[in-house]
Amino acid sequence: MIRVLLADDQTLVRASFAMLVDSAPDMRVVGQAANGREAVELARSARADLVVMDVRMPELDGIGATRLIAADEDLAGVKVLVLTTYDTDEHVMQALRAGASGFVVKDIRPAELLAAIRTVAAGEALLSPGPTSRLIARALALPETPATGGPDGLSDREREVLALVARGLNNTEIAETLGLSPLTAKTHVSRIMGKLAARDRAQLVIIAYESGLVRPGA
C-alpha cells in the first residue's frame, strides 16, 4: 500500500486528487497539506511514502518543502512527485535539484497520475522524460558547454547507460539500444546509482548534465 500525502493550496484540487488516489486499491491518502510547511510536518507524522507536491504554495513553496524533506534523514525513503502547471516551468528544475524524483503536469489524465505515483514510489523512472530532459538541459548548461567523460568511477558501458538515462530512456529502451537484456540494463542503472550515491533516476539525469557527459541539444 502506497501512503500518499497531497500538498496543494487549492482545496478543490486536493479533494479531487484524494478521491482519485483513494479509489486505487494499492494506495491511500494519509494526509493533505495546504502549504509546504504543513507538507513537511505531515510527511513526518503521517509516515507518507510519497508526496504529490504543488510548486506554488503559500508560506513555504513546494521547492522549499522538497528540499527540507530530502535533507531530513528521517524522511530518507519519502519520494516527492512535483506538480506543475506547465512542463516548461523552470521551478521544476529547482525542485529536481532540491530532491524531487519527477514531475507531472496538472492536466494529466487520472490513470496517468496513478501510474506516475506508482512509478515514483517504486523509484523506477523519471516522469515525463522528454520535457524533463529538455528543461534540465536549458537550466544546467549552455549549448557551448564542452562534453567531458562524465562523472568519475564509471566504466565505459556505465557511461553509455547513464547518457541514455539522461535522454529519458527506460530500462527496456536502454536494453534495446545497447543490445542488452532488460535485467542487465536494470543492473547497470542500479550500480550507477550506487556509485554516484544517487537517490533515483532524476538525480542521475542531473549528474549526467552537470558532469558534461550529456550536452544540451546534442
TrEMBL record:
Position of the signal peptide: none
Source taxon at top rank: Bacteria
GO molecular-function terms, A-Z: DNA binding
Pfam families assigned to the protein according to its UniProt record, in alphabetical order: GerE, Response_reg
Record key words, sorted: DNA-binding, Phosphoprotein, Transcription, Transcription regulation
InterPro entries to which the protein is assigned, alphabetical: CheY-like_superfamily, NreC/VraR/RcsB-like_REC, Sig_transdc_resp-reg_C-effctor, Sig_transdc_resp-reg_receiver, Tscrpt_reg_LuxR_C, WalR-like
Cited SUPFAM superfamilies: C-terminal effector domain of the bipartite response regulators, CheY-like
Record keyword Zinc present: no
Domain HTH luxR-type: 147-212
Modified residues (4-aspartylphosphate): D54
Domain Response regulatory intervals: 3-121
Name of the protein: DNA-binding response regulator
Organism in which the protein naturally occurs: Streptomyces virginiae (Streptomyces cinnamonensis)
Organism ancestry: Bacteria, Bacillati, Actinomycetota, Actinomycetes, Kitasatosporales
